[in-house]
Design goal:
The chain has one domain: Vaccinia Virus protein VP39 (Rossmann fold). The chain contains 10 helices and 7 strands. The protein has 269 residues and is α/β, with parallel strands linked by helices.
């Protein structure tokens, strides 16, 4: 759905404030740390969002490694630039399926939870391969199925009661809709990566001080908000409250602690 890719209005700010510490921070650290041992001079990040991976790359990679961070949504990049990084990076609006870079410009292409949003995965993968130098790596993360991600699953189930005739399915459909490793490997092969990727499944704990934090994070800080408001704009607060109550019922009044799980792929050029 077109609305699945719209990160605008207050979504970027809420995404950065709530969702980044809730689910993205540990995987940003994981991705960046996997590059530390490689010899790099230039790194490209695609679907950078509000810059959680970018900030970690800037912190752990040597200062002579240049970093270009791109995203299709300029409002997300604006928030990323406002938050800032520990050293200069280049922020650039760009479509991962039509990258504005020459062949072989980068030693690594990195993507933290963005591949699920690409309309054609194999096309985006072929672009990542094109801009990589021989021996370079395409490193990216994708969420496992929604049942392995407890807060997202609880929110999605809770909203079925709010909109029983047409429940919002954004979280299951898009962020958690690209979890089949065989399909990802097929798309990488179709994108020109001849060798099977390295794959690691990483589970961590997602924590928040109150049940309302994950409810706001998902219902108002992601395109799930677009789905809720498309059904009835006046019911966003009600939907958020219902999600918070469901999280409190399952995980207690707070602090809350739930499992999150993702796959990390490393495809060599």
């Amino acid at each position: 759905m077109k609305s699945d890719k719209v990160f605008a209005g207050s979504v970027p700010r809420l995404y950065e404030e709530y969702l980044v510490p809730l689910i993205f921070q540990p995987y940003a650290e994981d991705l960046a740390n996997r590059l530390v041992s490689r010899h790099l001079s230039r790194v490209l990040e695609i679907a950078a969002g509000t810059g959680v991976v970018t900030r970690r790359l800037a912190s752990v990679l040597p200062k002579d490694v240049s970093i270009v961070a791109t995203d299709l949504n300029q409002p997300m990049l604006d928030t990323a630039a406002e938050v800032g990084t520990s050293r200069p990076v280049e922020w650039r609006e760009a479509d991962a399926m039509q990258l504005p870079f020459d062949d072989g410009e980068f030693d690594a292409v990195v993507c933290g939870f963005g591949v699920m949003f690409f309309p054609s995965k194999s096309k985006a993968f072929s672009e990542a391969r094109r801009v990589l130098r021989p021996g370079g790596v395409f490193l990216f993360s994708a969420w496992d199925r929604i049942e392995e991600n407890e807060f997202a699953h609880t929110v999605t189930t809770a909203l079925e009661a709010v909109f029983p005739d047409d429940p919002p399915r954004f979280l299951a459909r898009t962020p958690h809709g690209y979890h089949d490793r065989a399909i990802v490997e097929r798309d990488l092969k179709d994108g020109g990566f001849a060798s099977p990727p390295g794959v690691h499944t990483v589970a961590v704990r997602s924590t928040a001080a109150t049940p309302r934090i994950p409810a706001v994070a998902y219902c108002q800080g992601t395109p799930l908000r677009n789905e809720i408001e498309a059904r009835d704009k006046s019911r966003l607060s009600e939907a958020t409250d219902h999600a918070a109550a469901a999280i409190a019922h399952q995980f207690g009044p707070g602090p809350v602690d739930g499992k999150i799980q993702a796959h990390i792929f490393a495809a060599e050029r």
